[in-house]
Design brief:
This protein is an alpha+beta fold and 106 residues long. It is 36% helix and 18% strand. The chain has a 4-stranded antiparallel β-sheet, covered by helices on one side.
Length: 106
């Protein structure tokens, strides 16, 4: 057990670093993880995002899970009011996956 102490110490330091990094970048992002009810199609989920004032950034692993973006501070409440089960801000910038104003990925 004594031999594993340095590894556990490094793991703890890494976890603290990841926590600090994720909390520090949370205010920068305009991205949201959106989870619609099970059984919704990707089209219906994308329509939910657009109707709430956002834009689809990319689909998730399931048809009812997407990453969306909006500068509206009330976007999360609007999504939930329109039927989303979960609308959670994604920490940090979305990077090169955010479409530019011209509609092409930057």
């Amino acid at each position: 057990m004594r031999d594993l102490f340095p590894a556990f110490l490094m793991l703890g330091a890494l976890m603290v670093g990841l926590l600090v990094a994720s909390l520090g970048g949370a205010a920068q992002g305009q991205g949201y993880l959106v989870v619609a009810p099970p059984g919704w199609t990707l089209g219906r989920t994308a329509d939910l995002v657009r109707a709430s004032g956002g834009r689809l950034v990319r689909p998730g692993g399931f048809s009812n899970v997407v990453i969306a973006a909006s500068a509206d501070p009330h976007f999360s409440q609007s999504l939930k009011g329109s039927g989303a089960l979960l609308a959670r801000r994604v920490p940090g910038p979305l990077g090169c996956t955010v479409p530019s104003k011209g509609g092409k990925a930057s």
